Amino acid sequence: MAVKEIRVGLIGYKFMGKAHSNAYRQAPFFFPDIKARPVMKAICGRDKAAVTQVAQQYGWESVETSYRKLVQRDDIDLVDITAPGNWHTKMALAAAEAGKAVYCEKPLANNLADARLMLQAVRKAGVINVVNFNYRRLPAIQLARQLIEDGFVGTPYHWRACYLQDWIIDPDFPLVWRLDKRIAGSGSLGDLAAHSIDLAMFLLGDIASLASLEQTFITERPRLAETTGGLTAAAAKGKVKVAVDDAALFVCRFANGTTVGTFEATRFAAGHKNFNTFEINGSKGSIRFNLERMNELEVYDRSDPEGHQGFKTILTTDPSHPYMEGYWPPAHNIGYEHSFINVIHDLMNAMAQGKGLDPDFEQGVKVQAVLETVTKAAKSKKWEKVPQA
Amino acid sequence: MAVKEIRVGLIGYKFMGKAHSNAYRQAPFFFPDIKARPVMKAICGRDKAAVTQVAQQYGWESVETSYRKLVQRDDIDLVDITAPGNWHTKMALAAAEAGKAVYCEKPLANNLADARLMLQAVRKAGVINVVNFNYRRLPAIQLARQLIEDGFVGTPYHWRACYLQDWIIDPDFPLVWRLDKRIAGSGSLGDLAAHSIDLAMFLLGDIASLASLEQTFITERPRLAETTGGLTAAAAKGKVKVAVDDAALFVCRFANGTTVGTFEATRFAAGHKNFNTFEINGSKGSIRFNLERMNELEVYDRSDPEGHQGFKTILTTDPSHPYMEGYWPPAHNIGYEHSFINVIHDLMNAMAQGKGLDPDFEQGVKVQAVLETVTKAAKSKKWEKVPQA
Amino acid sequence: MAVKEIRVGLIGYKFMGKAHSNAYRQAPFFFPDIKARPVMKAICGRDKAAVTQVAQQYGWESVETSYRKLVQRDDIDLVDITAPGNWHTKMALAAAEAGKAVYCEKPLANNLADARLMLQAVRKAGVINVVNFNYRRLPAIQLARQLIEDGFVGTPYHWRACYLQDWIIDPDFPLVWRLDKRIAGSGSLGDLAAHSIDLAMFLLGDIASLASLEQTFITERPRLAETTGGLTAAAAKGKVKVAVDDAALFVCRFANGTTVGTFEATRFAAGHKNFNTFEINGSKGSIRFNLERMNELEVYDRSDPEGHQGFKTILTTDPSHPYMEGYWPPAHNIGYEHSFINVIHDLMNAMAQGKGLDPDFEQGVKVQAVLETVTKAAKSKKWEKVPQA
Amino acid sequence: MAVKEIRVGLIGYKFMGKAHSNAYRQAPFFFPDIKARPVMKAICGRDKAAVTQVAQQYGWESVETSYRKLVQRDDIDLVDITAPGNWHTKMALAAAEAGKAVYCEKPLANNLADARLMLQAVRKAGVINVVNFNYRRLPAIQLARQLIEDGFVGTPYHWRACYLQDWIIDPDFPLVWRLDKRIAGSGSLGDLAAHSIDLAMFLLGDIASLASLEQTFITERPRLAETTGGLTAAAAKGKVKVAVDDAALFVCRFANGTTVGTFEATRFAAGHKNFNTFEINGSKGSIRFNLERMNELEVYDRSDPEGHQGFKTILTTDPSHPYMEGYWPPAHNIGYEHSFINVIHDLMNAMAQGKGLDPDFEQGVKVQAVLETVTKAAKSKKWEKVPQA
Q1: pTM (2 decimals)?
Q2: What percent of chain D shows pLDDT beyond 90?
Q3: Hey, what CATH class is D139-293+295-334+365-384 in?
Q4: What is the number of CB-based contacts under 8 A between chain C and chain D?
Q5: For position A143, what pLDDT does the model report?
Q6: Is the Cβ of A145 closer than 8 Å to some Cβ of chain D?
Q7: Closest approach of chain D CAs to the CA of A191, in angstroms?
Q8: Angle D15-30/D48-58 helices, nearest 10 degrees?
Q9: Contact yes or no for D310 and A312 at CB 8 A
Q10: Which fold has domain D4-134?
Q11: Is D271 left (phi over 0), alpha (psi -120 to 50) or beta?
Q12: For chain B, which chains pass the contact test of at least 3 CB pairs under 8 Å?
């Protein structure tokens, strides 16, 4: 049987565009048995010169400057959206309307209403839809999931997540698009906490209610000279107001009725660059993870003999670990980019069979519902329930 | 000049009684220049046989079975209270009334009203009063404090504390006194979170407001056969209700208006035995500590040259580190018990000069106010302000 | 100016063949400013079906089954040798004779005499020659080198390297080619210690003399059914003799007259998968590295203020760190494969200017001289001097 | 039955004298069931004023200034020798002749001949004899021993020990007694390597042969103004020659015929204060230890399920761990001094039954034989066999 081909149109060409491009290039390299090969048909961006250059660098066959045109091309099966959040909804709606499978960066949208629109659109169109919470597909996270399904942690009592970065501590760091509420929708919340929330739900199920705070430590920043994402930073000279959160913290209860959780997302934790960590403590054992040491998973087994118990650091690089057979021998580590390759591997295999892939837009909406509740609770200064998707 | 003597009467003889006894024995051993020598006059407990045995083991000159009698003895200068929380108030009041200096285990009381009574009593009596937040006096914590005073962290943005233990995960673990609300007042909150709160206040100042949750994972436990602390466990056969929190979590804002914090205290974190940790992230640097590695402090300095930044693990065992000149050469580690010895060292030196010592009962009341607010907010499901001491 | 092209012919297509192929694919992806683009002209292996399959998977334009034919093709500029060690000499000689640049896997040869032949051949032919000690080009190692050049460690007193793996502990693991002396030349020595030796020389200079031991813990192993590398495992049924070292250990003195070193290489260290570590201790500071956490470098600075000294963990993923600008944001880690990409990046840039690249064959010979001295000293049971290259 | 008393006479009152004094004070405090109580009869030193002061500080009943007088006192059962190494032999001989049990600091003597004299003397006198390799009695080390006896590591392949300190890197650090060959006998070798050697033998048995190097990095140092240990530093003004090793390294084979080992001892490893570490790798598992984190033991179990293997950090502070029932709750860490308390606990219990305790002088001689072989091999530049005790 001939290997299928999935013809991809990618919107966006910067950080995420590069990570996605790499994943399409590399998935068939590492996984020769992949059931559908991605064909890198077209990359889309408004700056034709820039996008043309990266098209060559990344290996795309053609270039588009209008996403509307891209989604309507007959030779595109899958539309991949990595543009900033304020673009997600219109792009996803257009792609769905054009009958294309949609693969969208997280968070799904800049607010819950938009996310729901997107879910409705893909449902109505009956197209495959995936939101890119890529960390789910790290070997360590897949192992964590497997352990939990196997009962390793027993009844989960605690979830504890920190996603800490420090790249905007300097008050003179300008208002880039990720700090612009009109473009990014939120700050650390949608950028960082969204990942932690998805991991929590992937491993422990839905979040029911929460109390929170949001904080903006630096309330004004220099305007960025160049325009970004189609929006010009405030015309006023000098500084502009920061309207997004620098940090978002919350305590919560899960829908299972037992687990309690803490979440912390911040861009103001000096020394932490991409410190995406969580820990689960249950009646039988514990699991913890730190993205800065992404080839490791730490586990604690209460059923170990008395006096011989302790946290064990598993290098998740054995051939028996998820995805690792495609890569290198044990402890010949993989990196950040491989999380994306793993997603594309799974997405191609699913699409080869006409299937979608988790996390889908419904999950994207659920995460959005939690994000929106965090902001709501921060304002109301009360515990708030997370609404249904 | 002759070294002064401070004659001590100790109430309680179990875990804390042992730790305090050891501190009186050892302070002059390690610190020969101590300005007042503790004289271990009397130890007090209701079980005469038991207390007589430990008196010999620990080195106390005499035994009392009534705290009222103890506090009135002419040959006692300092009354040290390590009985369970429900006894603190009456004992401290009696000691103050008798004009004795009072040194009381934490938390100061089982509720804020009682704590305030104690503060009033010592103020009225004009006696020295100290609450034993012993971890303040670890070399690593003293170093953290010094760093903060020297501006190392700059503006503090984040406080993040976990105090995790796991000794009651087994549902068949009985309702010992620390799980008995009438005796202990609360569960993980007063036992564990109290330490974290005091450290936070010691390092960053007062806490202004918070949102919280409290959780009791195992709601019924076997009654304990023997009575403890003067109270008999429920007469009913079989299981008794657990009325204290197994875990307490909160997010907060500090009084400085900038710092936001998370606190988590639990006895249900499998794998963590005495995992008393915190981290501070500020505009200039970060500091973190873990009691399970109590001879270490980790620091991150944003002013290190670009590309050479990272968390640095300081072994706080050099002679230049607080208290360490009294002990052993570098990296010949000290242990848990030395935190108590350090307190007694400082207390003796202070009393030799007729002075009190921080943290005093006022600080004990402040911590109690935070604890009470945690419980209040857990019930109200709203952000609550911490009342004044 | 048009970007140059370097047309590559690769010999070997398994583990190393895959790693090298990936590097050619990815170097221009991550480093668009690369001064010469590798063109993946031909891949060579004796099993036509197998090599044809990977040619497609890896992206090679054509296939050869004879290395002699490959090296003579007019459309090849660079011959890349990743075949087992017993093939290196004849392949390199043929490539040099054909006037091709030669890039050879480590160790350069299976013995010193062969390595010297290779050096003579490339010198005579005047062709660019490189031996692939890829770990040199990890950001952490480059940072270590820079620190040493800047005087960070001062006078180096100690070198301490362990390269520990555990993949052949099982006595029933068969005699694969890496355990076959006729193919691999040696065991842990050439495979693992060679890397440590090259790193030591890269950072501290030549090794002068040493005392050693070699040990084969499992002296007989099952023969491997299939033939490998052109040689058939012993015809005798059942087990075959293991003629290579399972572990090689030595203490040494460096040519600088001051530094003393220990090296340990083994495939019998349970729990260590690719634990390639070293530490340098000098008069001013220390540096340590562990390949299992390859995005980190630990440093200790004696000039830090008293009481504030400690080992600092630098995440070597800032844009300011070598090569990292081509990859991802800070702490979005790179992996094992990126060490190869970095080599190709540097090799292409060098060849674009007609230059060679360190480590060259001369360094390959020097490492071989140390390896040979380890074996000699293990037999003589005496300290032995390392011969000149 | 009345608890026995063992009346102790201690020679030496500085670092080790303090550590031993503390152990006698504290053993009955932590272990009330101890079968014999140490009575702190007399402490001996030549400086009467100094020793009188510490006698009071440490709790000794009386003072002697002549060791000859001390060993002959009728009220002394056990002579404890903590004077520098050049005094051990004459003191032990005198004590043995006087029929006293002898407990001697390590290394047993400054050379093998002296050590053998001591062994002969205690054998002839039939007195209890113990050499103080205190680290054996840390809970983590006892656990390691138990694991090995239980077959946890299987066939041991590798031993790897580093004992690293850094207190004499400064070339202006003076020639204190530990650097004076006449007093200390050797440098890092007897001070540090002796501990590693004893641990290796405790866990894996005798060492058969070795190759080594010794290095003195700083060959001249300022003379120390004050005289120490009864010897005056060189009369010449200015600097004096350093005659001891700053570092000693060796590779070895164990008597079991299988295990190979590396040892490294140095006082020139910047950043390491008391980094006494070892690792054992065997056919079934691995064990590693680091004195700087002395409440932890790391273990790796090859029989863990595939994909779930990893190094596990055991906190050796559970009541089930050796000695810990006497101390504090889990993870309420013990420190350096408790290793000495554990020795005294075991020694008192043994002597209560008229028994001796391992490690005895025979083991002390065996360690000395290894030390002497290290020096011999460093000079001969050949592998040397370790002589019989």
Answers
A1: 0.96
A2: 95
A3: alpha beta
A4: 132
A5: 98
A6: no
A7: 32
A8: 20
A9: yes
A10: Rossmann fold (3.40.50)
A11: left
A12: A, C, D
Mean pLDDT of chain C: 95
Cα distance from D266 to chain A (closest Cα, Å)?
30
Q: Does A308 touch chain D (CB under 8 A)?
A: yes
Tokens 């007090």, located at residue? B44
Cα(D201)–Cα(B5) distance, integer angstroms: 49
Indicate the CATH number for domain B4-133: 3.40.50.720
Q: CB of A338 within 8 A of CB of C335?
A: yes
What integer is the mean pLDDT of A57-71?
98
CA distance B277 to chain C (A): 19
Find out whether D140 and D316 touch, Cβ atoms under 8 Å: yes
Contact B313 C310 (CB under 8 A): yes
Chain D contact for B313, CB < 8 A?
no
Query: By the CB < 8 Å criterion, does D143 face chain A?
Result: yes
CB contact under 8 A, C283 and D271: no
Domain ranges for chain D: 4-134, 139-293+295-334+365-384
Q: Give the position of tokens 């079968």.
A: D35
CA dihedral D135, D141, D145, D147 (to 10 degrees): 180
CB contact under 8 A, A266 and B249: no
Q: Domain spanning B139-293+295-333+365-384 has what CATH number?
A: 3.30.360.10
The alpha-carbon gap from A301 to the nearest alpha carbon of chain D, in Å, equals 10
Question: How far are the Cα atoms of A197, A252, A256, A382, D314 from residue A263, in angstroms, in the given order?
Answer: 8, 8, 17, 16, 28
- Using the Cβ of A307 and the Cβ atoms of chain D, whether some distance falls under 8 Å is answered with yes
What sections of B59-154 are H helices per DSSP?
67-72, 85-97, 112-125, 139-149
Instruction: Tell me whether residue C59 is exposed, middle or buried, using C-beta atoms within 10 angstroms of its C-beta: 0 to 12, 13 to 18, 19 or more.
Output: middle
**pLDDT, tens only, B264-302:** 999 999 999 999 999 999 999 999 999 999 999 999 999
| Interchain CB contact of A210 with B (< 8 Å) | no
**From CA C77, how far away is CA C80, in angstroms rounded?**
10
Whether cis (ω within 30° of 0) applies to the bond prior to B359 is: yes
Interface partners of chain A (CB pairs < 8 Å, 3 or more) are: B, C, D
B2 Cβ neighbours under 8 A, 6+ residues apart: none
Bridge partners of residue B129, in order along the sequence: B102
Q: Residue B330 contacts by C-beta under 8 Å, 6 or more apart in sequence?
A: B315, B317, B318, B319, D167, D273, D274
CATH class of A4-135: alpha beta
Going by C-alpha positions, the residue among D204, D196, D201 that lies closest to residue D264 is D196
DSSP string, C173-216: S---GGG-HHHHSSSHIIIIIHHHHHHHHHHH--EEEEEEEEE-
For residue A381, is it left (φ>0), alpha (ψ between -120 and 50) or beta? Answer: left
Q: Please provide the size of chain D in residues.
A: 389
Distance from the Cα of B315 to chain D's closest Cα (Å) equals: 9
**Residues in chain A within 8 Å Cβ distance of B307:** none
Per-residue pLDDT at C235 = 47
Domain A139-293+295-332+365-384 has CATH 1.10.3290.10: no
Question: Is A310 at the interface with chain D, CB within 8 A?
Answer: yes
Residue A61, token pair as written in the block: 């066959």
Question: Is the Cβ of A338 closer than 8 Å to some Cβ of chain C?
Answer: yes
Residue-wise pLDDT tens digits, C175-222:
999 999 999 999 999 999 999 999 999 999 999 999 999 999 999 999
CA distances from A367 to A81, A98, A145, A202, C198 (A): 18, 26, 18, 11, 50
Residues of C in contact with A315 (CB under 8 A): 273, 292
| Interface membership of C148 toward B (CB under 8 Å) | no
Is the CB of D278 inside 8 Å of chain C's CB atoms?
A: no
